[in-house]
Design a protein that fits this description.
The chain is of the alpha+beta class and about 70 residues long. It contains 2 helices and 3 strands; from the N terminus they run E-H-E-E-H. The radius of gyration is 10 Å and the shape is globular. The protein binds copper (II) ion (CU).
């Protein structure tokens, strides 16, 4: 299991948190997603076939691009 914390300036409210949790949580291999509008981060725990870059690509697709 790998855990990555993404810095996402666009997380502004509970709706953003919910969207990220649902969309990233649907990716095969993703075990858990935490998203915080306070810290502007999303922490994702995953196994294969999910990858750090694949999750980052999805975040960009749903208009929550990560800056790290
Ligand atoms: Cu929002």
């Amino acid at each position: 299991m790998t855990t990555v914390t993404y810095n996402i300036p666009g997380i502004n409210c509970g709706h953003c948190e919910h969207t990220i949790k649902m969309e990233v949580g649907d990716l095969e291999g993703v075990q858990s997603v935490e998203a915080s509008s306070e810290s502007k981060t999303a922490t994702v725990a995953f196994d294969a076939p999910a990858t750090e870059q694949g999750i980052k690509d999805l975040l960009a697709e749903i208009n929550y691009p990560a800056v790290n």
